[in-house]
Amino acid sequence: MRIAVFGDAHAHAEALDAVIAAAERAGVDALWSLGDMIGGGPDPAYVVRVTRERCLLALMGNHDYAATGSVDPSRLGGATRSLELAREALGEDDLAWMRGRRPAARRADVECWHGGPRNPVWEFVGPSNADACLARQKASLGLVAHTHVAAAFTPGRRVKVRVGEPLDLRGGKWLLNPGAVGARVPPRRGWFAALDAEAADGAFWLELDLAAQLATWRRAPYDPRPGRLRARALGIDDP
Protein backbone atom coordinates (compact mmCIF):
# COMPACT_ATOMS: atom_id res chain seq x y z
CA MET A 1 0.00 0.00 0.00
CA ARG A 2 1.33 3.42 -0.99
CA ILE A 3 0.27 6.37 1.14
CA ALA A 4 0.52 10.13 0.61
CA VAL A 5 1.18 11.60 4.07
CA PHE A 6 0.95 15.33 4.71
CA GLY A 7 0.30 17.78 7.53
CA ASP A 8 -0.10 21.44 8.38
CA ALA A 9 -2.29 22.51 5.46
CA HIS A 10 -3.24 25.51 7.61
CA ALA A 11 -6.23 26.62 5.54
CA HIS A 12 -4.39 27.07 2.22
CA ALA A 13 -6.54 25.74 -0.62
CA GLU A 14 -4.06 25.98 -3.50
CA ALA A 15 -1.29 24.25 -1.56
CA LEU A 16 -3.57 21.39 -0.51
CA ASP A 17 -4.97 21.01 -4.01
CA ALA A 18 -1.43 20.84 -5.40
CA VAL A 19 -0.46 18.07 -2.98
CA ILE A 20 -3.57 16.01 -3.66
CA ALA A 21 -3.14 16.38 -7.43
CA ALA A 22 0.51 15.31 -7.18
CA ALA A 23 -0.43 12.32 -5.02
CA GLU A 24 -3.08 11.28 -7.52
CA ARG A 25 -0.59 11.49 -10.38
CA ALA A 26 1.76 9.29 -8.34
CA GLY A 27 -1.00 6.69 -8.05
CA VAL A 28 -1.11 6.43 -4.25
CA ASP A 29 -3.73 4.25 -2.61
CA ALA A 30 -4.71 6.59 0.23
CA LEU A 31 -4.20 10.04 1.76
CA TRP A 32 -3.31 10.57 5.42
CA SER A 33 -3.50 14.00 7.07
CA LEU A 34 -1.53 14.59 10.29
CA GLY A 35 -3.55 17.60 11.39
CA ASP A 36 -3.61 21.38 11.54
CA MET A 37 -6.11 21.68 8.75
CA ILE A 38 -6.75 25.30 9.73
CA GLY A 39 -5.03 28.31 11.31
CA GLY A 40 -3.15 31.05 9.48
CA GLY A 41 -4.68 30.75 6.02
CA PRO A 42 -7.89 32.03 4.40
CA ASP A 43 -9.61 28.75 3.45
CA PRO A 44 -10.56 26.80 6.60
CA ALA A 45 -13.92 25.47 5.42
CA TYR A 46 -12.49 24.30 2.09
CA VAL A 47 -9.50 22.52 3.63
CA VAL A 48 -11.63 20.80 6.27
CA ARG A 49 -14.15 19.67 3.66
CA VAL A 50 -11.50 18.32 1.28
CA THR A 51 -9.65 16.56 4.11
CA ARG A 52 -12.88 15.05 5.33
CA GLU A 53 -13.85 13.83 1.87
CA ARG A 54 -10.48 12.61 0.64
CA CYS A 55 -8.38 11.40 3.58
CA LEU A 56 -8.58 7.87 4.90
CA LEU A 57 -6.87 9.13 8.08
CA ALA A 58 -7.33 12.64 9.46
CA LEU A 59 -5.80 13.71 12.76
CA MET A 60 -6.56 16.81 14.80
CA GLY A 61 -3.85 19.40 15.34
CA ASN A 62 -3.56 22.12 17.95
CA HIS A 63 -5.03 24.75 15.62
CA ASP A 64 -7.93 22.44 14.79
CA TYR A 65 -8.78 22.09 18.47
CA ALA A 66 -8.94 25.88 18.74
CA ALA A 67 -11.66 25.99 16.09
CA THR A 68 -13.78 23.48 18.02
CA GLY A 69 -13.50 25.47 21.24
CA SER A 70 -11.26 22.94 22.98
CA VAL A 71 -8.26 25.32 23.01
CA ASP A 72 -8.24 29.08 23.57
CA PRO A 73 -7.21 30.69 20.23
CA SER A 74 -5.01 33.18 22.08
CA ARG A 75 -2.69 30.27 22.88
CA LEU A 76 -1.79 30.11 19.17
CA GLY A 77 -0.26 33.59 19.02
CA GLY A 78 -0.45 35.25 15.62
CA ALA A 79 -3.07 32.84 14.28
CA THR A 80 -5.80 34.13 16.62
CA ARG A 81 -7.73 36.12 14.02
CA SER A 82 -7.64 33.33 11.44
CA LEU A 83 -8.94 30.87 14.04
CA GLU A 84 -11.81 33.20 14.93
CA LEU A 85 -12.66 33.39 11.22
CA ALA A 86 -12.47 29.60 10.99
CA ARG A 87 -15.02 29.24 13.78
CA GLU A 88 -17.36 31.50 11.81
CA ALA A 89 -16.75 29.74 8.48
CA LEU A 90 -17.06 26.12 9.58
CA GLY A 91 -20.52 24.57 9.68
CA GLU A 92 -21.83 22.57 12.61
CA ASP A 93 -21.50 19.33 10.69
CA ASP A 94 -17.81 19.91 10.00
CA LEU A 95 -17.20 20.98 13.60
CA ALA A 96 -18.93 17.85 14.86
CA TRP A 97 -16.73 15.75 12.56
CA MET A 98 -13.62 17.54 13.84
CA ARG A 99 -14.61 16.89 17.45
CA GLY A 100 -14.69 13.20 16.60
CA ARG A 101 -11.06 13.22 15.40
CA ARG A 102 -8.06 12.45 17.60
CA PRO A 103 -4.45 13.74 17.54
CA ALA A 104 -3.03 10.21 17.36
CA ALA A 105 -3.77 6.99 15.51
CA ARG A 106 -2.21 3.67 14.59
CA ARG A 107 -2.56 1.99 11.24
CA ALA A 108 -0.90 -1.43 10.83
CA ASP A 109 2.67 -0.96 12.06
CA VAL A 110 2.62 2.85 11.73
CA GLU A 111 1.98 5.20 14.64
CA CYS A 112 0.83 8.73 13.79
CA TRP A 113 0.73 11.89 15.88
CA HIS A 114 0.20 15.52 15.13
CA GLY A 115 2.76 16.54 17.73
CA GLY A 116 4.73 13.60 19.09
CA PRO A 117 4.49 10.33 21.01
CA ARG A 118 4.83 11.99 24.43
CA ASN A 119 2.27 14.72 23.73
CA PRO A 120 0.26 14.13 20.55
CA VAL A 121 -1.06 17.70 20.37
CA TRP A 122 1.74 20.01 21.48
CA GLU A 123 5.11 18.24 21.28
CA PHE A 124 7.63 19.55 18.74
CA VAL A 125 9.88 16.68 17.60
CA GLY A 126 13.38 17.84 16.74
CA PRO A 127 17.01 16.78 17.08
CA SER A 128 17.11 17.47 20.82
CA ASN A 129 14.24 15.13 21.74
CA ALA A 130 13.97 12.70 18.82
CA ASP A 131 15.69 9.85 20.67
CA ALA A 132 13.34 10.24 23.64
CA CYS A 133 10.38 10.19 21.25
CA LEU A 134 11.69 7.12 19.45
CA ALA A 135 12.09 5.38 22.81
CA ARG A 136 8.40 6.04 23.54
CA GLN A 137 7.34 4.94 20.05
CA LYS A 138 6.24 1.28 19.94
CA ALA A 139 5.97 0.71 16.19
CA SER A 140 8.91 0.55 13.82
CA LEU A 141 7.60 3.63 11.97
CA GLY A 142 6.19 6.84 13.43
CA LEU A 143 4.85 9.92 11.66
CA VAL A 144 4.59 13.44 13.08
CA ALA A 145 3.83 16.96 11.85
CA HIS A 146 3.54 20.26 13.81
CA THR A 147 7.09 21.61 13.30
CA HIS A 148 6.54 22.30 9.57
CA VAL A 149 10.03 20.89 8.91
CA ALA A 150 10.61 17.78 6.80
CA ALA A 151 12.72 15.45 8.93
CA ALA A 152 13.83 11.85 9.43
CA PHE A 153 15.12 10.45 12.72
CA THR A 154 16.43 7.02 13.64
CA PRO A 155 17.96 6.22 17.06
CA GLY A 156 21.07 8.31 17.56
CA ARG A 157 20.92 10.00 14.19
CA ARG A 158 19.10 12.60 12.11
CA VAL A 159 19.12 11.68 8.42
CA LYS A 160 19.14 14.46 5.85
CA VAL A 161 15.94 14.64 3.82
CA ARG A 162 16.55 14.77 0.08
CA VAL A 163 13.43 15.49 -1.96
CA GLY A 164 12.84 12.81 -4.56
CA GLU A 165 15.37 10.36 -3.12
CA PRO A 166 13.83 7.30 -1.39
CA LEU A 167 14.83 6.55 2.18
CA ASP A 168 15.13 2.84 2.99
CA LEU A 169 13.25 2.11 6.22
CA ARG A 170 14.04 -1.62 6.39
CA GLY A 171 15.61 -2.99 9.53
CA GLY A 172 15.36 0.17 11.59
CA LYS A 173 13.10 2.32 13.74
CA TRP A 174 12.12 5.64 12.21
CA LEU A 175 10.26 8.83 13.07
CA LEU A 176 9.41 10.93 10.01
CA ASN A 177 7.89 14.39 9.41
CA PRO A 178 6.50 15.02 5.90
CA GLY A 179 6.96 18.81 6.17
CA ALA A 180 4.23 21.42 5.82
CA VAL A 181 1.66 21.78 3.06
CA GLY A 182 0.38 25.31 3.61
CA ALA A 183 2.61 26.84 6.26
CA ARG A 184 5.95 28.56 6.17
CA VAL A 185 9.02 26.50 7.00
CA PRO A 186 11.02 27.99 9.91
CA PRO A 187 13.15 29.99 10.31
CA ARG A 188 11.97 32.36 7.56
CA ARG A 189 10.18 35.44 8.85
CA GLY A 190 6.66 36.39 7.84
CA TRP A 191 3.96 33.81 7.18
CA PHE A 192 2.76 34.88 3.74
CA ALA A 193 6.03 36.37 2.56
CA ALA A 194 7.69 33.02 3.30
CA LEU A 195 4.97 31.16 1.40
CA ASP A 196 5.53 33.40 -1.60
CA ALA A 197 9.19 32.38 -1.56
CA GLU A 198 8.54 28.69 -0.96
CA ALA A 199 5.57 28.04 -3.25
CA ALA A 200 7.70 27.69 -6.39
CA ASP A 201 9.58 24.83 -4.71
CA GLY A 202 6.25 23.47 -3.57
CA ALA A 203 4.20 22.21 -0.66
CA PHE A 204 5.70 19.19 1.09
CA TRP A 205 4.25 15.69 1.21
CA LEU A 206 5.62 12.22 1.87
CA GLU A 207 5.13 9.22 -0.40
CA LEU A 208 5.23 6.16 1.84
CA ASP A 209 5.49 2.70 0.29
CA LEU A 210 4.59 0.34 3.13
CA ALA A 211 5.30 -2.85 1.18
CA ALA A 212 8.76 -1.80 -0.01
CA GLN A 213 9.43 0.14 3.22
CA LEU A 214 10.50 3.27 1.35
CA ALA A 215 9.79 6.91 2.18
CA THR A 216 10.19 9.63 -0.45
CA TRP A 217 9.65 13.33 0.23
CA ARG A 218 7.92 15.24 -2.56
CA ARG A 219 7.10 18.87 -3.25
CA ALA A 220 4.10 20.16 -5.19
CA PRO A 221 4.52 23.71 -6.62
CA TYR A 222 1.53 26.06 -6.51
CA ASP A 223 0.62 29.71 -7.05
CA PRO A 224 0.46 31.51 -3.66
CA ARG A 225 -1.02 34.76 -4.97
CA PRO A 226 -4.75 33.92 -4.91
CA GLY A 227 -4.55 32.73 -1.31
CA ARG A 228 -2.64 35.81 -0.22
CA LEU A 229 -5.22 38.07 -1.85
CA ARG A 230 -8.00 36.25 0.01
CA ALA A 231 -6.02 36.56 3.23
CA ARG A 232 -5.54 40.26 2.66
CA ALA A 233 -9.28 40.73 2.12
CA LEU A 234 -9.90 38.97 5.46
CA GLY A 235 -7.29 41.06 7.26
CA ILE A 236 -4.97 38.15 8.05
CA ASP A 237 -2.10 38.91 5.66
CA ASP A 238 1.32 39.80 7.06
CA PRO A 239 1.35 43.27 8.64
From TrEMBL:
<protein>
    <submittedName>
        <fullName>Metallophosphatase family protein</fullName>
    </submittedName>
</protein>
<comment type="similarity">
    <text>Belongs to the metallophosphoesterase superfamily. YfcE family.</text>
</comment>
<dbReference type="InterPro" id="IPR024654">
    <property type="entry name" value="Calcineurin-like_PHP_lpxH"/>
</dbReference>
<feature type="domain" description="Calcineurin-like phosphoesterase">
    <location>
        <begin position="1"/>
        <end position="198"/>
    </location>
</feature>
<dbReference type="InterPro" id="IPR011152">
    <property type="entry name" value="Pesterase_MJ0912"/>
</dbReference>
<dbReference type="InterPro" id="IPR029052">
    <property type="entry name" value="Metallo-depent_PP-like"/>
</dbReference>
<dbReference type="InterPro" id="IPR050126">
    <property type="entry name" value="Ap4A_hydrolase"/>
</dbReference>
<dbReference type="Pfam" id="PF12850">
    <property type="entry name" value="Metallophos_2"/>
</dbReference>
